[in-house]
Amino acid sequence: MKPSYSLLKNTIMITQKNLFMSFSGMCIALFMGETANAQFIETMGTAGSGTETIAVHETNNRFDQIAHTYSGTADMRTTTPSTGYPGASGSFNTLIQAQETFVAQDINASMCGVSDSISFGVFKSTNASTGVDFLVLEYSINAGSSWVNIPFTALPTGSGTSHWYQRKVLLPAAAHISTLWLRFRSTLTGSSSANPQFRVDDLTFTCGTTSGENCSNLTSLVEAESATTYCAQIGTNALYASTNMTAPLYQWYNQNGILTGETGDFLTLSTSGTYYAVISNDEGCVLTTEKTYILVYPQPEFCAVSLEGCEGDTVEACASLAASNLLISEYLEGTGNNKYLELFNATCDTVDLADYVLKAYHNGVNVPTYTISLTGTLAPNTAYVIANTNATIWSGTPDLIINNLAFNGNDALELYNTVTLTTADIFGSIGYDPGASWRDITVGSPTLGWSTENKTLVRKSCVYSGIDTRTDLGGISGFKTLTTEWDTLTVNTVSGLGSHVFGPSSYSFSVASGSASIVSSAGKCMQVVIGAGVSSIAVDASFCTFNDCEEINNLITVTDTCHKSRGAIAPVEGSLPSSIVFPNPFTETLSVNYTVEKEGLVTFTIFNLAGEQVFSQTVAAEKGNQETELNLASLSAGTYVCHIQSADKSEEIRIVKSK
In three state form, how does the secondary structure of 235-287 look? Predict the structure, then answer.
C-alpha cells in the first residue's frame, strides 16, 4: 500500500507536472504560519493518449497523485475531454460503462470538517439520463470491504443535456479518516456498449480552514436548475452559484448590468438573457463566474380561425402558427458581393415594413455600422428579400436592393422595431468579433463545421420566435442558436430564397366541444362537418424538440349559422320541383336529377360561399325527368351552392366537394 500525503492549504499535491508549484506553495505557507490540512486534486493526468486500463495508467505514473493507488474496471480515455465548468482539465478522464468502477485509495481526509465537500466533473452519454439513475459515488472506511453511498444532485435532462457538469457534495463525517477510499460505480446492467455511459474527471476536495485565503486557487461554478433553453409555460428557472471561497458574498448581473437585490447564491429568472455572478469575501478575493445564456421561448399560438356555415356542410379549416414579430428566415453569405437576407412575416396580419429597420454590427462593434430602412407592406406567410447591389446569383427579384447590405461571417445583424422600440430578431452576437465566423468545431458534433462564413443558413420551419435579447457572449460559440435554430447549406445555395417553410412538423385535430365532426386532414388543414350550434376544434402540433413547448390559443371555432342540413333545398318563388344531387359530398363529378315542365335550356351555375361564380354549364332539356352530369374536378374542396335555372323557374342546392 502506498503512503498517503497531505500538504498545506492552497498548495497542490506533488506531481510530475507541478513539482515546483508545490514546493514554492509549501514555503509560502510555512512563512505565513498556516495550519496543515488535507487536500486531494486528481485531474486524471495529461500525459499519454488513447485508451488505457486504470492499471496501465497507474503503472506509467499518469495520475496526478502518484502517491495514491487507483484501481477498478473502467478505462482511462482522452476522448470527450472535460469542458464547460471551472477548472475543467481536459485530456484524460475515466469512462465508466455498465457495471464498471473507478476507485481512489488511501486519501487523507482526517482534517476535514462538516462544511468540507468533494467536487468532480461528470459527463453523461444520453439526454435522458439524470446521472444518479445509474452512477453511484461511494466511500469506504475499511479498505473497500463495505461501501456507503454519497448522494449528489441529479443532472438536467432533455434535448442538448448530454455534456459535462460539475457536482459538489458534502463529505460525510464518517469519512473524515486518513485512509479514505472513494469509488464511482455504474449500476447499469448489460454490455459495455449499453447506455447511459459516464465519464468522471477532476476529483477534488480541500479540507480545513485558515486565515489569509489564497485567492489564486479559488474556483466558481454556475448551474441551471433545468435546461437553459426552455418554454415559458414551465414558469421560472433558477441558477445556482457555488465556490470554494471562504464566507462568499454574491452579486448577480445580466447583459444589461447589475441585478439590484439579487445577492444570494441562487437566482430565480423567467426571461431570456445572459447571467453571471461576482463572488467576493472580506479577504479581498473576487471571482466572476462564467456567463450562462438562458433562452425562454414564448408558448406557440395560432392565428384565430372562425368558420361559419350550415349544419351538415363540410368546410375546410387551416391552422396558422403565429409569431409576434418578423423573423430573419434566411442568411446567404455567398462569394464576393453575393449577400442576401430574407425576412418572413410569421404573424397573423399584414405588417407595415416602415416600422422596421435592419442594423448591422461589423467586427464586434456595439454601435450599428449601418442601418437599412424598410418600405412597403408584407402579407402574412410571405417573405421579403434584401440583396446587395452587386449580388447576381439569385434569378429572383429582390424586394430591396441596397449597397449597404454587406456582411461577412463575423458581422451581427439586428431586426429592430422602431415603433415599439424593441428587437424583433438577432443574428450572431452583437458586440463580439468571433474571428472569421461563429462556428461549431466540436469533434463528433452532428453540427461540426456549421458556420456563418461562406454558407447559406435557413431558419428551421418550427422556429416561431426571434431572438430579442443580446447574448453578451464572445468567442466562436457566442451565437448560441446557430446549431439549434438554423440549417446549414453550402455556399451560394439560393434554391429556397424568396419563400420560407414555416410551421410545425405535424398537426393533429380533435373535436374539443360541440357536435362538429372531422372528415379528414392533411398537413395544417382539415375537412370538418359543421354541427349544430357552435363547435371547437383543438389543434395539436409538433414543434422543435429543443424547447418542449406546447401550443395555446389553439381552438378553431365552427358555427352553424343557417340551421339547415346538408343537401337541403332552398327554393325561390316559381321554383322547379325539388331536384336531387348525388353523390353529395362528391370528389370530381356531380349528377343532378331534375324535372323540366317545358322543353328548353337549363343552366347549372356553381357559386362559392363568398357568392363568386366558379362554374357554369347550359344544356338543352326535353320535358320530363332529366339527369345531367357536371364535371367539377377543377374545384377546390369545400362547400358550394348549385343554382339550377330553367326558362322560368330556379332552384338552389348546397353541395360539398371533398378531397
Answer: CCEEEEEEECCCCCEEEEEECCEECCCCCCCEEEECCCEEEEEEEECCCCCEE
Q: What angle do CA 330, 333, 334 make, to 5 degrees?
A: 120
| Residue 55 φ/ψ, nearest 5 degrees | -65, -45
State in words which class domain 301-320+503-560 has: mainly beta
Q: Do 242 and 277 form a contact (C-beta atoms < 8 A)?
A: no
**pTM for the whole structure:** 0.58
Distance of alpha carbon 470 from alpha carbon 484, whole angstroms? 17
Which CATH number is 19-206's, of 3.40.50.1010, 2.60.120.260, 3.30.465.10, 3.40.50.300? Answer: 2.60.120.260
- Range(s) within the chain of domains with CATH label 2.60.40.10: 215-297, 301-320+503-560
- Spatial distance between the Cα atoms of 341 and 418, rounded to a whole number of angstroms: 19
> Which pLDDT band, with edges at 50, 70 and 90, does 21 fall under?
very low
Domain with residues 580-657, CATH architecture: Sandwich (2.60)
To which residue does cell 426552455 refer?
230
The DSSP letter of residue 56 is H
For 412-462, write each residue's pLDDT tens digit. Answer: 999 999 999 999 999 999 999 999 999 999 888 899 999 999 999 999 998
Fill in the DSSP letter of residue 34.
Answer: P
Residue 146 vs residues 100, 106, 182, 394: alpha-carbon distances, Å: 17, 15, 11, 71
Distance CA 2, CA 5 (A): 10
Q: Are 457 and 494 in contact (CB under 8 A)?
A: no
